[in-house]
């Protein structure tokens, strides 16, 4: 154990950083794209079925295959890996944004509109605050997925803790496999915990009291 | 003033929610739209703030076509109260009350002041400002819902079954409150309900709707007195129609233009009028027909030698103003033994006379109801008494 840290400690810190870096950028892009799209979809029911269906199909493509598919288009390295993870993060966020917005009590929407809110005020002041816990739950789910899948990104040369796991597999060094897997799990749990706290924070008071 | 001119709302599948409706709501009036579900009453109301757009016809507010106005700006000028309060659970009571003022970018002090003042009007202290809606009782929540619709000085308030979900006692208190606020502040209220008691209690005018059309649009008294058709009658229900005599005013039963003389005529002339018209009392008025008093046969007989004009001998008379409820007049007649009571206008002019015979008519109506029974029963009695 101590030997492992002596030999690989510095490298491990670098890989953890890479891993987080890839994941956070992918998740961040996912939020930036999926939340607004999810909101727009609540305004057009026909498009919603199509887009959510499309995102579901993308989700079914095996992650390793998706990474491999990136190579002919984007080459290898960090960028294609981030793109693949971003695509994976979309569905849970998109779906939760859509259902969360749709689930807002219609009386509140009616009252807000009837009192003279514009569509954007309605979204910002009523629907988003009310849907925030559901949307946040989607982001949290995507977050843990992305951390776990980012391990595969090393396969196309993106780095991250996947480097340890793949090296271990190729060179038959179990310590490396374990040394990659455990930090990935801990990272996933940590991200889940942090996003869980955020989720609580954005939950309006009415949900706590109900 | 809100004017509906041949307004219809037809949905894509051909259903007519509102069918060629025309009516006018005057400024400051409390108008209740009533009907069964699917009668188009809510649709009619929601077209006023363009939550639903009409498919044909036009709606004018103070002469301006609302379709030419921006819907968002229009709505900010119209208060809106819905059944399930529509209070924002993530906003405090204060934030809820000043929602529209905030949209209109009012100054903070002004908003704070108006929120406190309105809360006070509904008997709630400033300590409620920082609470959240779900910490309040249902009645308190709807009080906030009501004052939220008043906060930006809206001239028109739309209310969609606002008290439907409340218990009877709370509902009663809120009805009183809303009626009081409306009268005090002079706002125009358009109120949707399916509860006839609520409509009769609150409305200046009631529009009874069925299948997208307005069947009758009139004051509660007139609707009770003269239901337009069987549908309205059945909607009012037997009980209320039976009770209508208590809702009647003296104007509806009084004898018009009772026999009167001016105060300057001589006793001899007065006696002649009595003889010609076969009466034993005369009402005395001045030249403008303002009621002065009463002279009866006995007084004339007693003072024949000493007095010259009726002015000298007329006695005071108990009278009521036009518009007085018949029930209260009947009460006085029976308890104090007046034979008749004159009815005067606001300016004191003699308009009519409620006699004991008018009361008999009412009792007769209430007991016998419709005409057929009334004809058959007395006939039998007459025959019976003859054969004895």
From TrEMBL, chain A:
Domain ABC transmembrane type-1 intervals: 16-195
GO biological process: glycine betaine transport; transmembrane transport
UniProt KW keywords: Membrane, Transmembrane, Transmembrane helix, Transport
Cellular location(s): Cell membrane; Membrane
GO cellular component: plasma membrane
PANTHER family: CHOLINE TRANSPORT SYSTEM PERMEASE PROTEIN OPUBB, GLYCINE BETAINE/L-PROLINE TRANSPORT SYSTEM PERMEASE PROTEIN PROW
Transmembrane segments: 20-41, 48-71, 77-94, 145-166, 172-195
Major subcellular location class: membrane
Species name: Alkalibacterium thalassium
Pfam families hit by this protein: BPD_transp_1
Xref: InterPro entries: ABC_transp_perm/SBD, MetI-like, MetI-like_sf
Protein name: Osmoprotectant transport system permease protein
Family under the similarity heading: Belongs to the binding-protein-dependent transport system permease family.
Membrane topology: Multi-pass membrane protein
Statement: the UniProt record of this protein carries the keyword Transmembrane helix: yes
Automatic annotation (TrEMBL), chain B:
Keywords (A to Z) from UniProt: ATP-binding, CBS domain, Cell inner membrane, Cell membrane, Membrane, Nucleotide-binding, Repeat, Transport
Keyword ATP-binding part of the UniProt annotation: yes
One GO CC annotation: plasma membrane
Enzyme class: translocase
Gene3D superfamilies: CBS-domain, P-loop containing nucleotide triphosphate hydrolases
Membrane topology note: Peripheral membrane protein
CDD domains cross-referenced by the UniProt entry: ABC_OpuCA_Osmoprotection (cd03295), CBS_pair_ABC_OpuCA_assoc (cd04583)
One annotated GO biological process: glycine betaine transport
Sequence similarity: Belongs to the ABC transporter superfamily.
Subunit-level organization: The complex is probably composed of two ATP-binding proteins, two transmembrane proteins and a solute-binding protein.
Protein name: Quaternary amine transport ATP-binding protein
């Amino acid at each position: 154990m101590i030997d492992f840290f002596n030999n690989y400690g510095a490298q491990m810190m670098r890989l953890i950083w890479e891993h987080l870096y890839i994941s956070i950028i992918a998740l961040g892009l996912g939020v930036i794209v999926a939340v607004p799209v999810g909101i727009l979809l609540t305004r057009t029911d026909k498009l919603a079925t199509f887009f959510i269906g499309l995102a579901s199909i993308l989700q079914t493509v095996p992650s390793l295959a998706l990474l491999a598919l990136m190579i002919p288009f984007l080459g290898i390295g960090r960028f294609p890996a981030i793109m693949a993870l971003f695509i994976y993060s979309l569905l849970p966020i998109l779906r939760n944004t859509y259902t969360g917005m749709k689930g807002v009590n219609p009386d509140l929407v009616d009252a807000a509109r009837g009192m003279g809110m514009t569509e954007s005020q309605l979204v910002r002041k009523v629907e988003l605050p009310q849907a925030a816990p559901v949307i946040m739950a989607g982001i949290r789910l995507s977050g843990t997925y992305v951390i776990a899948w980012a391990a595969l990104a090393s396969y196309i040369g993106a780095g991250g803790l996947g480097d340890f796991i793949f090296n271990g597999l190729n060179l038959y060094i179990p310590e490396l496999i374990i040394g990659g897997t455990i930090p990935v799990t801990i990272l996933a749990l940590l991200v889940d915990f942090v996003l869980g706290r955020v989720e609580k924070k954005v939950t309006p008071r009415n949900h706590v009291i109900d | 003033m809100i004017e509906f001119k041949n307004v219809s709302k037809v949905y894509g599948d051909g259903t007519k929610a509102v069918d060629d409706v025309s009516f006018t709501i005057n400024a400051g009036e409390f108008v209740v739209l009533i009907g069964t579900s699917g009668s188009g009453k809510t649709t009619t109301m929601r077209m006023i703030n363009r939550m639903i757009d009409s498919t044909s016809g036009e709606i004018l507010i103070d002469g301006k076509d609302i379709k030419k106005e921006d819907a968002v700006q229009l709505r900010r000028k119209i208060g809106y109260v819905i059944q399930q309060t529509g209070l924002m659970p993530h906003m405090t009571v204060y934030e809820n009350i000043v929602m529209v003022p905030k949209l209109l970018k009012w100054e903070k002090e002004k908003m704070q002041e108006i929120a406190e003042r309105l809360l006070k009007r509904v008997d709630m202290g400033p300590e409620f400002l920082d609470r959240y809606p779900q910490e309040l009782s249902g009645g308190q929540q709807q009080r906030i819902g009501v004052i939220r619709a008043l906060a930006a000085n809206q001239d028109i308030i739309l209310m969609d079954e606002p008290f439907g979900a409340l218990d009877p006692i709370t509902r009663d208190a809120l009805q009183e409150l809303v009626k009081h606020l409306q009268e005090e502040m002079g706002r125009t209220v358009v109120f949707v309900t399916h509860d006839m008691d609520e409509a009769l209690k609150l409305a200046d005018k009631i529009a009874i709707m069925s299948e997208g059309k307005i069947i009758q649009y009139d004051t509660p008294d007139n609707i009770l007195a003269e239901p337009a058709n069987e549908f309205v009658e059945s909607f009012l229900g037997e009980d209320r129609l039976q009770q209508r005599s208590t809702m009647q005013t003296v104007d509806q039963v009084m004898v018009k233009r009772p026999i009167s003389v001016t105060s300057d005529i001589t006793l001899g002339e007065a006696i002649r009028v009595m003889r010609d018209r076969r009466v034993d009392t005369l009402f005395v008025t001045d030249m403008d027909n303002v009621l002065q008093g009463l002279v009866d046969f006995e007084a004339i007989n007693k003072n024949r030698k000493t007095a010259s004009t009726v002015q000298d001998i007329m006695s005071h008379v108990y009278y009521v103003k036009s518009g007085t409820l018949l029930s209260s007049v009947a009460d006085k007649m029976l308890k104090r033994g007046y034979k008749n009571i004159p009815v005067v206008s606001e300016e004191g002019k003699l308009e009519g006379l409620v006699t004991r015979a008018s009361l008999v008519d009412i009792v007769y109506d209430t007991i016998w109801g419709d005409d057929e029974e009334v004809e058959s029963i007395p006939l039998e009695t007459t025959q019976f008494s003859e054969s004895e």
